[in-house]
């Protein structure tokens, strides 16, 4: 992969951005996060790595997350009552498949913490499915290593939190730039079945040519259907941010009418002006910034043709 420096980042920072501390398994043992990822996106990026070009600026969010993890570990490990970033391996029950993982923190005796440096929207829209599988995968791994965990927590640091937004009184907006979120624990048999299925999916995909790789699911593509979106109108008369609760799927037969009714009710309550925006459906992950292998993806190619 070629990594450019289009914005003149000083060399020490550029070198830091392009460095990788991910200790990829030399013997090919997959990680929990690898198995959760879509095989098409992963394999296309791996197979075409030498042909991919990105800019160092695209790595900023990733490296900020790594920096938080690294700083906490260096400044606090070891600490009595906590186990931090210890890698383990386990066999998925009922199979010969070995998987590895490295939880961020375990608060002894039985609380697992995973740290996320993310957007406030992750808190507003709630728990992500991949976060649930990741933390429950760690719980399964620990159980197979004779360490039973009974509680799963996320510690979320928000990169785009604003005090002014928090003071507006929206109950869904985080009231601080950090937040703890509890993740539901799943039955271990269900978690084992999920990872056995994912391991088989990735193993089979590895034998297929690019064009026959299994398609990413709509969730994996971060697909958002076409909607009518109610937006507030600023003093300049231009549409501003979307209003909480004001999204209506176009698949609903009365979606436009419901959006118009929402505008009337909200205007009566707040005295502010609102407008209805036609928001087209998108596959948010299907772009080079998020999927480095999309150039070689037939689904992405069809999306590009359809947009012209």
Keywords:
globular; 10 helices; Lambda Exonuclease, Chain A; three-stranded antiparallel beta sheet; 35% helix; 2 domains; alpha+beta; 308 residues
Largest sheet: 5 strands, mixed
The top level CATH class name of the largest domain: Alpha Beta
Q: Average pLDDT across residues?
A: 91
Helix content: 25-40%
Are there runs of 5+ residues with pLDDT below 50, and where?
A: none
User: Structural class per helix/strand content?
Assistant: alpha+beta
Question: How much of the polypeptide forms β-strand, as a percent range?
Answer: 15-25%
The name CATH uses for the topology of the largest domain is Lambda Exonuclease, Chain A
Shape: globular
Question: What is the count of DSSP helices, taking H or I runs of 4+ residues?
Answer: 10
Overall CATH architecture of the largest domain: Alpha-Beta Complex
**What gyration radius follows from the Cα positions, in whole Å?**
22 Å
Question: Overview of this structure, please?
Answer:
- The protein has 308 residues and is α+β, with helices and mostly antiparallel strands.
- The protein folds into 2 domains: 211 residues, Lambda Exonuclease, Chain A (Alpha-Beta Complex); 84 residues, no CATH class.
- The protein is 35% helix and 23% strand.
- It is built from 10 helices and 14 strands.
- The strands form 5 sheets. It has a 5-stranded mixed β-sheet with strand order 3-6-7-8-9.
- Strand 6 and strand 7 form a beta hairpin.
- Helix 6 crosses helix 8.
- The chain is globular.
- The model has no long low-confidence stretch (mean pLDDT 91).
């Amino acid at each position: 992969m070629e990594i450019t420096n289009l914005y003149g980042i000083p060399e020490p920072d550029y070198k830091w951005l392009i460095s990788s501390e991910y200790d990829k398994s030399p013997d090919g043992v997959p990680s929990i996060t690898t198995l959760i990822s879509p095989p098409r996106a992963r394999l296309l990026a791996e197979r075409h790595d030498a042909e991919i070009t990105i800019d160092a600026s695209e790595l900023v969010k990733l490296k900020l997350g790594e920096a938080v993890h690294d700083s906490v570990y260096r400044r606090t490990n070891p600490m009595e009552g906590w186990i931090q970033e210890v890698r383990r391996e386990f066999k998925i029950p009922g199979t010969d498949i070995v998987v590895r993982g490295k939880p961020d923190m375990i608060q002894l005796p039985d609380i697992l913490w995973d740290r996320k440096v993310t957007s406030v929207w992750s808190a507003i829209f709630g728990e992500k499915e991949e976060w649930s599988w990741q933390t429950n995968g760690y719980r399964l791994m620990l159980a197979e290593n004779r360490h039973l965990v009974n509680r799963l927590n996320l510690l979320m640091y928000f990169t785009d939190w604003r005090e002014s937004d928090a003071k507006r009184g929206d109950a869904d907006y985080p009231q601080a730039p950090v937040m703890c979120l509890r993740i539901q624990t799943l039955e271990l048999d269900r978690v084992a079945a999920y990872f056995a299925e994912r391991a088989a999916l990735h193993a089979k995909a590895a034998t297929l040519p690019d064009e026959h790789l299994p398609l990413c699911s709509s969730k994996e593509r971060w697909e958002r259907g076409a909607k009518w979106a109610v937006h507030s109108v600023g003093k300049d008369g231009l549409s501003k941010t979307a209003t909480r609760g004001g999204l209506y799927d176009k698949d609903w037969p009365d979606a436009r009418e419901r959006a118009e009714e929402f505008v009337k009710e909200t205007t009566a309550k707040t005295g502010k002006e609102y407008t209805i925006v036609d928001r087209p459906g998108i596959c948010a992950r299907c772009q080079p910034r998020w999927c480095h292998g999309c150039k070689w993806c037939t689904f992405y190619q069809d999306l590009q043709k359809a947009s012209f």
